[in-house]
Amino acid sequence: MEAMNQKSLERVVSQRALQMGSSFPCQICVVGFLCGVCLASLFLAALTSFGSFEFNGISFSMGASSSSSPSPWNSSSDAINMVKSTDCKLKLKETERWFNSQRSTMETDNERVSLLHLVWGALLTESVHEEREFLLKFGLNQSSVPNAPHLENCKLSAYINMRLDTRAENESFPPWTNRKGLLDMYPASTAKEQLGSPRHRPISEGVYPPWITGSDEENYPLTRKVQRDIWVHQHPPNCWDPNVRFLVADWERLPGFGIGAQIAGMCGLLAIAINEKRVLVTNYYNRADHDGCKGSSRSSWSCYFLPETSQGCRDRAFELMDNKEALEKGIITTKDNYSSKQIWAGRAPRVWGDPWSYLQPTTEINGTLIAYHRKMDRRWWRAQAVRYLMRFLTEYTCGLLNVARHAAFGKEAAKMVLTGLPREWPNVEVANNSGSDIEDFVWSSHRPWIPRPMLSMHVRMGDKACEMKVVEFEKYMLLADRIRKHFPHLNSIWLSTEMQEVVDKSKLYPHWNFYFTNVTRQVGNMTMAIYEASLGRETSTNYPLVNFLMATDSDFFIGALGSTWCFLIDGMRNTGGKVMSGYLSVNKDRFW
Length: 592
Known about the structure:
Blueprint: H1 2-21, H2 24-50, E1 52-55, E2 58-61, H3 75-123, H4 128-137, H5 154-164, H6 191-194, H7 223-234, E3 245-249, H8 259-275, E4 278-282, H9 311-321, H10 324-328, E5 332-334, H11 340-345, E6 363-365, E7 368-369, H12 376-389, H13 395-418, H14 437-442, E8 454-459, H15 473-486, E9 492-497, H16 500-505, E10 513-515, H17 528-535, H18 537-553, E11 556-559, H19 564-574, E12 583-585
Parallel strand pairs: 3-4, 3-5, 6-12, 8-9, 8-11, 9-10, 11-12
Antiparallel strand pairs: 1-2, 6-7
Helix pairs in contact: 2-3, 3-13, 5-13, 8-12, 12-19, 13-18, 18-19
């Protein structure tokens, strides 16, 4: 038995030795050992040839003879020393060649990664001419460029989103089916379908809006039903029906109002519209009043997300705005018809009962799960409202996310893709199977690649101290370490902050991989209004929205519920299948 155990042990040790021997660090050690042996051999040969040497005044004799005259080499020792010297020279040359080849390989790999990263970046441009010129510059063509897993086809996404937000011809609802992505457009393949069997099950039979992911248990209570009902409320079949009433409202633009406050205000107005059975129509959005938003989407929420209602209802509402009688009769109302208290602290719709009373306690503050607080109805409703308002991205917003992902993860994606390509790339074409059914109809619905698992962290400091308890970055990182103790494979953080100090401190945590948008940040105490003005309207709107959407897509989140921005991120995550991911907050909402 002992002999068998000994053999098993020897086998395991041998296998482990083989695995270790194939590793790069081990190869370095072996080469170093061989070089040492060679140098020692040369050293001993030299000692043998000279017979004796003196070190610090002390004589050492290496020969057997006590004669003062040196003994001639015999033929045997002479041959051994010559062989040893020649062998070491050969080994040193082989070692040098090996290191040169490794360095050359690494340099070549880095060059290939940089090239692929640059090519993908060029493909993000909207100009087909610029894209073609760039490829020609490097002697490439479209067929030799592999697909970028971290980038989304924004034109295709925009098409799908618009299709899923528009009633099908002669139908009561959009094509919301049990088939995801473009699968409901796949050609009918069975005789039953060809004979007219309905593939599009009626909404009343339980098909829900496609912008909700995860099971019912992974979202706030009744999320699927509520999102469907809000869409139906906001999209009446006939906007010119005299029974349809409207509430038209500009987005808040008072000095000091951030994006979070603007969205929270619109959530309150949507609650009023539902309670009064009106269709909410949003109007001027100052943060979209920049050159990045083109055409009719300029100064409109629809620059970033699909509109809250149909174009027909928008046209009808703006037509009624010029009708004095419609205003007097209350067919149409505006934000001026309601007090600040109604907008900001108004009653959440009771159409669905009180689903907030059975929220799952998955938020932790100071080591304790929050099972109840005074504003649970507001938390539940704002989550539903912000999810609806941001249900579908536009092509413009999709492009912003592509640029951010490419800057943050592009080189990692390139390294990953190149491992599956021939070493001769880019001198060989890549076999892209684009056009196959599974790519066009199945994989097209997959989200772009990011390093997972990903922890999103929003660190709010600066002038926010006047509204909530501000916590130093170190406290956030303690919470991050807590998460990693339970999920040891977590090592990536998407860091969202306006403070340069926080970005600088992230360098003190080399065991984490930090990603963040490349934007100028605050240095010292500066009000948010002054900081945003220094960035310009386009940048000060685009980069926070990118951070917001990255946070909602991340696997874990650490923030401060005292911040409206974090409050809304929490709402998007809790209606996006992330309830059971939990939420570690460094403080509580100031109204709880």
